[in-house]
Amino acid sequence: MSDYSPQQRGLCCCCTLLSKGGKGEQANMIKLGFLARELVGILTSVGLVLGVAAITLWVLNGVPTQIQGTNKVLEFKDTRDAQLALGIKISRPAYFPDYLAWPPALIQAQKRPAIAVLMTFTSREQDREVLWIHEVIGQVDKVFVTQLPEPKKALQRSKIDLNGDEAELVLGQGLDGEAYNCIRWKHSNRYIAMATVYSQEELLKMARSMTY
């Protein structure tokens, strides 16, 4: 069994599956991806399906290290420490509503095979997780975009323009019937996903105000 927490498992696999390897390694990853999709129904996180990223580490436990890459998950108390350790600027929205607590309740990151950052935010009043921002920086497989979190039950899916970048907006519900909406896009060499329990309007305000 892995010593990683469920959140760490998700972050590790998000990068592991994205690494660029030889044809043999890519074939193995494809097989693992299909297996993970069969298992995806097992694991949900606050109503959001984490897909391949959340379950595959258990599969990868049996995969040689040279295929897995280095997947040490780091945790930070604030974004400044994370940026110094990773040597990057973490993307964040300039529009940050007062009902969200700052700093993030959880910041997890991984350096290899690509830099990945996951920030989890809670609401000030209810102290529950309400916003997630995922970011991967570097050369990754295009299939990554389809493996970012999205609602358990997608009700509407559309392509939109996000400040000149093409984005996918997915509106839906979690297992409890509560609204769960997400937007995913690529900016330069950054792949970003933002998911929230709040409205489409609030989600788009934050996404459109993103600073890189």
Could you characterize the architecture of this molecule?
A hairpin with a 5-residue loop joins strand 9 (165-173) and strand 10. By secondary structure, the protein is α+β, with helices and mostly antiparallel strands. The longest helix is centred in the first third of the chain and has 17 residues, at 23-39. The chain starts with 5 loop residues before the first helix and ends with a strand. An eight-stranded antiparallel β-sheet has the order 2-4-5-6-11-10-9-8, sandwiched between helices. A two-stranded antiparallel sheet has the order 1-7. It has a two-stranded antiparallel ribbon with strand order 3-12. It has six helices and twelve strands. The radius of gyration is 16 Å and the shape is globular. Helix 1 (6-16) crosses helix 3 (51-60) and helix 2 (23-39) packs across helix 3 (51-60). The chain has helices at 6-16, 23-39, 51-60, 65-68, 79-86, 200-208, and strands spanning 48-49, 74-76, 92-93, 106-110, 115-122, 129-137, 150-151, 153-162, 165-173, 179-187, 190-196, 210-211. Helix content is 28%, strand content 32%. It has one domain (6-211).
